[in-house]
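Work through what follows:
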Amino acid sequence: MANKINPATGLTGEQVEERIKAGQVNHQPQSKTRTVSRIIRENTLTLFNLLNLFLALLVFCVGSYKNLLFFNIVVINTIIGIVQEIKAKSTVDQLTLIAQPMAQVLRDGKMQSIPFENIVLDDIIILKAGNQIPADAVVLEGELEVNEALLTGESDTILKEAGQSLLSGSFIVSGQAYVSATAVGSDNYASQLIDQVKSIKESNSEIMRSLRLIVRVVGALIVPIGLLLFYKQIFVQDLPIETAVVSVVAALIGMIPQGLVLLTSVALAVGVIRLGHNHVLISELYAIETLARVDVLCLDKTGTITEGVMEVLSVETLLADKDPIKALRAIVANVKDENPTAQALKESCSGQAPSWNCDQVVHFSSDRKWSGAHFIDVGSYVIGAPEIILKDAYEEIRNKVEGYAKDGQRVLCLCHSEEAFGENSQLPGDLSVAALILLGDKIRKEAKKTLDFFKNQGVAIKVISGDHPVTVSQIARRAGLAHWESYIDCKTLETDEDVAAAAFEYSVFGRVSPDQKQLIIKTLKANGHTVAMTGDGVNDILALREADCSIAMATGSDAVRQVSQVVLLDSNFSGFTRVLMEGRRVINNISRAASLFLVKTLFSLLLAIILIVANQAYPFVPIQLTLIGSLTTGIPSVYLALEPNRNRVSGNFLETVLRKALPGAMAIVLNVLLIMFVGERFGLSYAEKSTLSVIATGITGLVILFRVSKPFTGQRLMLFMAMVLLFAGAVFLLYPFFYLLSPLSFSPPMYLLMGINLLLIYPIMLIVVRIIEHVEAAYIKRSEKNKR
């Protein structure tokens, strides 16, 4: 391929096409969201959906079409899940597109603005202050000061001149230059670092693990139980084939917690959409849950606690007859440098500059390390590094300067002289120190409030940075971090064991290498902590990948945004609290609603096993369980899963859900068994026992809903009353449709059994709760005894 590039005009259209065909394009990692076809496939071809389809075919084959209503609910649930996940994908993709970085290139002699990923090899790129370097490149013309903190973690600037190389992921601090792309896509330095973390990362989601366990257990039990129940009803009880099939299908669909998986997906998808509206991009659904469980948050200093820019902290006047603020305003107005220091002076010394007549200006440079201006009838003012400007006279203020430096502050001196600048911009003679200007990283306005929030929530904060530990410690102090004085210089840690020990002992870590960051997080995780990590540079990638939840700022490296699960698009530190609150809402509400689903699964499973052993007919048909499930679980769970909830997340998800579900499930099982066996003594028919079982189960489900809905709000009370009225309407008005007998035609034994059932519901639930509490207490006591 011809490589005759004219730096004045850039690549031609033909040369760009040649490079695209050769694959020499700056391709970025692919979107982490699933395709629409994959979303449809994963929501449709599930184990539970296939089981429900098989059961629906059985019911269809025996001609009991009314009992196919349960499959309509399955279809509706699947459609809702697909729609919500596609909405979440659309939100994520749109936010990703908005956040896509752009670069200025020269092609065919014209300036063009193109996405980073459209840059090709040898493209002429125009870089200036504030730009991120999109690809490895070499400087052709101009001069740049580059901050490689995103690669190395150290915030010192490096001067780059013609012929010198630039690394992708760095930021331009000052200057302007024409550069040529020397490597693109996977050949970039940043991309090669990303290659180290390309392995698939398993999401640390307790809900996901719990759901998978439930699916495996139910999937393993449902087939043998179904076959045994069918065998009993056909060959032992000699029931007609239609009755046996419908009865077995009812037992099996009761065991399938179909809506639980859907509810979790919908609640998380809605969380993604809500956070998207608040400028928070979630690339993995379960990242919401993980961050809500975080108990250690590791922060990078730059871009997280600080804004990545400098600010003037204070000015100490040393010459009483000079006004340093007036002098600084004059320098800023006339020198007009565009570097972080000049910007900090400009913001801190805002106001009208004095009308001094300036006849000499000396701009800042990395070699010179100072800038200044001469004003007629006023003299020269110089600002910069004290040791460079004062030379031997620096000894007079050395102790004062080093005292400030030990506190993590950067010290500039403002000097005055009556003389003008010499030839070749030489410093004037007879300089006097007018003031010392103390600068530091600008703390984000929301940092202190956010750190206090996490402290009050029991989340430990650790600051990890490539900068000097004293500097990082002082920034932590100014931001209000607890234990800011507990810091360590990681360059002094020689072994992995030293780093692992320091992970627990210290709160602030300075001069940390990328491998050490990763090891700190790995150590915390190994000791049972759920760890979140924030970062903005390529040097953070290994640690971000290791963390349970990775969070990136939009102002950081594009490579970091690609590997992170959460991106704060407005780079607002307080966005952490929004994600935490949304995660709490999702987890707590799913836990509460999941207990409703597992009541049905548990009582169906236990009842089927007991009736197989007792040689009794299953008392429900599918349409009856559809009625009970919809009014006591399905409809309420949708509302409960989406309402606000800011309570702290505590306990194991599956244990919490089972503890809530078991009392209700046992109440239903015992009441149904009472109806079956006592009803047989009273000579009740199958239809009479089935009707009583449906009513008892529905009322128990409503009692459980009552308990789950507490404390009542106006909306919860309306929801509960609506479900009660709908169930009463179905029982008293639509009883033929649901294969029930009219309550008005009950015999005295039926009324007696119904009354006993109503009286036993709550006592049974309380007894089961007490048993669970005693078992748990005994287990804890035994565990503590074994530890001793």
The first strand starts at residue 102 and ends at 107. The radius of gyration is 35 Å. The chain has a mean pLDDT of 85.
